[in-house]
TrEMBL record:
Keyword Transmembrane carried by entry: yes
Compartments where found: Membrane
Keywords: Membrane, Transmembrane, Transmembrane helix
Protein name: Integral membrane bound transporter domain-containing protein
InterPro entries in UniProt: Memb_transporter_dom (IPR049453)
Topology relative to the membrane: Multi-pass membrane protein
Residue intervals of the Integral membrane bound transporter domain: 49-171
Cleaved signal peptide residues: none
Upper taxonomic lineage: Bacteria, Bacillati, Actinomycetota, Actinomycetes, Streptosporangiales
Transmembrane segments: 64-82, 89-117, 155-177
Length: 397
């Protein structure tokens, strides 16, 4: 009962913290929360405008489709609104044409469905239809099922109402504060960089003192969260690029916006794969110690190597954090140089041990090499991107 109560309390605290964060976001100018509120208001306005226009044109029973289409046309970017608006109108028109052509002659029946569904699904699979490809089949079957396929006036009104809804959504999203993502991608990439550096630092702390792998499950959870942050950052950067297409705000202020975070994202994407590999390699060390080894010490790798490797991970974490937050270039360069020198010393020691037959733990040699190789690759990634990252000043939202 006590554990359950603590779990419920912790869950309630997380929900309260989430609500507070959302309210705090509403107080910040041009925050993500305010953007969502604006998008909701714009969708409402688009629906009202679409209904008024459809009603004025006396589209009778088909008028309902206009506001329904307008709501789903207010997308996260102007580009999505334009492309999806055209695709939806094309999909609906194709479905109506199929239903009208077959239903006018045959009405609703098994044979008419056999004649409509296959070509509708083939049209839906055309890649240019995008996410609205399924609207071809659903529109055709609905028109046929409702008995409207033989009513030319309703079919025409349905297509016109869809077009009105799409135009309303496009116009509102294009002309009224079109979404322009500037701060969110930078923040997402920075969070990804912090999490990556934090995981490297946590592993260094555990490896430095007696091969303490008790936190390995937490490192594995952090690695999973790293994938989630990477996906979020990738989506945010893609939205930033797409939001600049056909955006009138950008045309009015062509120099506005924060620096492009894409180079940093590419660096972190490459580094994340090797961080995962390090966590995976360490999972092989998490087994009972062999006779003669210290408590918690894996039998395959020496303590000296663990301490050296921990120091290397610490340097990598510092260099990565400095790179992402765009710290002093000289300091970042110094950290990378120190890490390179330290990695070279580890290589030299391992080579010397092989040459003189002084390997204490031959069973763990391949594992030691794997750990060092992934650390070297992270270091190479940091070195290769040394002069390509944008300056991160105070980002505008």
């Amino acid at each position: 009962m006590g554990d359950r109560w603590r779990h419920l309390t912790a869950s309630a605290e997380r929900q309260v913290a989430y609500v507070r964060a959302q309210l705090a976001g509403l107080a910040r100018p041009d925050s993500h929360q305010r953007l969502q509120v604006r998008q909701i208001a714009k969708a409402t306005l688009a629906a009202v405008l679409a209904w008024l226009v459809a009603s004025r044109l006396s589209l009778s029973q088909a008028a309902w489709i206009a506001p329904a289409t307008a709501v789903i046309m207010v997308h996260a970017t102007v580009y999505q609104t334009l492309t999806n608006g055209l695709r939806r109108v094309a999909a609906v028109a194709t479905g109506v044409i199929l239903a009208g052509a077959v239903g006018y002659v045959m009405g609703l029946g098994v044979l008419s469905l056999v004649l409509i569904v296959p070509p509708a699904l083939l049209a839906a699979r055309w890649r240019r239809m995008g996410r609205h490809g399924s609207d071809v089949a659903t529109t055709a079957v609905l028109m046929l099922s409702f008995g409207a396929a033989s009513e030319e006036g309703y079919l025409l009104g349905y297509v016109v109402a869809t077009a009105i809804g799409a135009m309303s959504g496009i116009s509102v999203n294009l002309l009224l504060w079109p979404p322009l993502y500037r701060d969110r991608p930078v923040l997402a990439v920075r969070r990804l960089g912090r999490e990556t550096a934090a995981l490297l630092g946590a592993m260094a702390e555990g490896l430095r003192d007696g091969w303490d792998l008790s936190e390995l499950p937490e490192w594995e959870r952090q690695a999973v969260r790293l994938d989630e942050h990477l996906a979020a950052a990738t989506t945010a950067v893609a939205d930033r690029t797409e939001s600049r297409r056909y955006n009138l705000r950008l045309r009015l202020h062509p120099r506005s916006g924060a620096a492009d975070p894409s180079p940093v994202l590419r660096l972190l994407t490459s580094a994340a794969a090797h961080v995962h590999a390090i966590v995976h390699a360490l999972s092989y060390l998490d087994h009972p110690a062999a006779p003669g080894t210290g408590p918690g010490q894996p039998a395959d790798v020496s303590d000296d190597y663990a301490r050296d490797y921990a120091d290397l991970l610490d340097l990598l974490a510092e260099a990565l954090a400095s790179k992402v937050r765009r710290g002093d270039p000289a300091h970042t360069h110094e950290l990378i140089g120190r890490a390179q020198a330290h990695a070279a010393r580890i290589h030299e020691r391992m080579t010397s041990e092989i040459r003189h037959g002084e390997i204490e733990h031959p069973g763990g040699w391949a594992l030691s090499g794997s750990l060092l190789t992934d650390a070297d690759r992270i270091l190479a990634i940091l070195s290769d991107h040394q002069d390509t990252l944008p300056g991160y000043g105070r980002a505008k939202t």
